[in-house]
Amino acid sequence: MSGGHGQDKQPTQPQGSFGLRLLEAPVIRRDDPRAYTSIVDHLNPGAVIRRRVEVSNMSPNPLRIELYAAAASIEKRTFTFAPRRTPNELTEWTSLDHSALTLNANSKETARITIRVPPKASRGERYGVVWAQVASSGQGNIQVVNRVGIRMYLDIGPGGEPPSDFRIDKLTPGRSRDGRPELAAQVRNTGERALEISGRLSLSEGPAGLRAGPYRVPTGTTLALGDTGSVKIVLDDRLPDGPWTARLTLTSGRVQKTATATVTFPAAGMWGTAVMPADISQWPPTLSWGLAAVAAILAVLGIRTLKQRHAQRRDPPADRTDG
């Protein structure tokens, strides 16, 4: 990772001169993409978990890399790193088998993270970061600190893991002042875990049958429990106004929702009318299950009706006599 004053980064793969990478995910989370880049789990009070991480030096010189856990929080829909080594409850439960590693040029080594939850820990979600840090002297008395980290999202409580879920409330087309079309999606966290939103947007059925995309949804939007926020996708400035059929797929871990809507981009510097998306994946689970149950009942009734009709065709009326 290249230098800068107090830089904080969380790459999915090591970048620059040194890096930190999670080496494993729990078996029960092999289908959760977040579990490969962050420590995401639900733990009962008294539980202990361990994770292995790879610390790498990709520079041509030896490096002393410090390892420690520090606090984090979700503020204004952003996963926010606390300054320096600020502690919180989660960091007090977290330890590493090395406080620092001295790595030769172009080498790597494994470290182990242990999280011990106290038996009397209260229910709730905690956030933190495991950091790998390199400090060096700059000009004058300035110390240059670079660090890369692995986020921690730990939910504590007895029983099973609380559900994660969200809803796409509306899509709003717009254009920036310099004429670039934009699409903003309002997203509501309807579950009981924090969400890291990512996704993609595709446009189809545009003027003369044009198609565009897919466009990547910028990462960085974190929604706390019960929070509502927006993600904004900036598109190609050569796109005509429309109308377009927008298909937006958003993901957080195992949860994925797709919404579609017809949108038309307004003039530069303006936002258009918000559109309520129409897609079955947006319906509440209870409604979806209810509709499925009604469909099943209707199917059963339909089969019974057909059987009755076939029986009536085969059997003679009760009052009929044959001569």
Sum this structure up briefly.
By secondary structure, the chain is mainly beta. The protein folds into 2 domains: 7-156, Sandwich (Immunoglobulin-like), CATH 2.60.40; 166-278, Immunoglobulin-like, CATH 2.60.40.10.
Q: What descriptive keywords fit this protein?
A:
Immunoglobulin-like; 2 domains; seven-stranded mixed sheet; four-stranded antiparallel sheet; disordered C terminus
Describe this structure in words.
It is a single chain. The protein has about 325 residues and is mainly beta. It has two domains: about 150 residues, Immunoglobulin-like, CATH 2.60.40; about 110 residues, Sandwich (Immunoglobulin-like), CATH 2.60.40.10. It has two helices and 18 strands. The strands form four sheets. Strands 1, 3, 5, 6, 8, 10 and 11 form a seven-stranded mixed β-sheet that branches. A four-stranded antiparallel β-sheet has the order 2-4-9-7. A four-stranded antiparallel β-sheet has the order 15-14-17-18, with no helix packed on it. A hairpin with a 5-residue loop joins strand 10 and strand 11. The N and C termini lie far apart (about 100 Å). The N terminus and C terminus are likely disordered.
SSE topology sketch:
Layout: E1 7-9, E2 18-22, E3 39-43, E4 48-57, E5 63-75, E6 78-81, H1 89-93, E7 94-96, E8 100-103, E9 107-116, E10 124-137, E11 143-156, E12 166-175, E13 181-189, E14 195-204, E15 212-223, E16 228-234, E17 244-252, E18 255-263, H2 285-314
How much strand content do the residues show? over 45%
* N-to-C series of helices and strands: EEEEEEHEEEEEEEEEEEEH
CATH class group of the largest domain: Mainly Beta
Which shape, going by the Cα principal axes? globular
N→C terminal distance: 100 Å
Largest β-sheet summary: 7 strands, mixed
Radius of gyration: 27 Å
> Helix coverage percent of residues?
10-25%
Total helical segments: 2
- Total of domains: 2
The residue ranges in which pLDDT falls below 50 over 5 or more consecutive positions are 1-7, 9-15, 282-301, 309-323
Beta-strand segment tally: 18
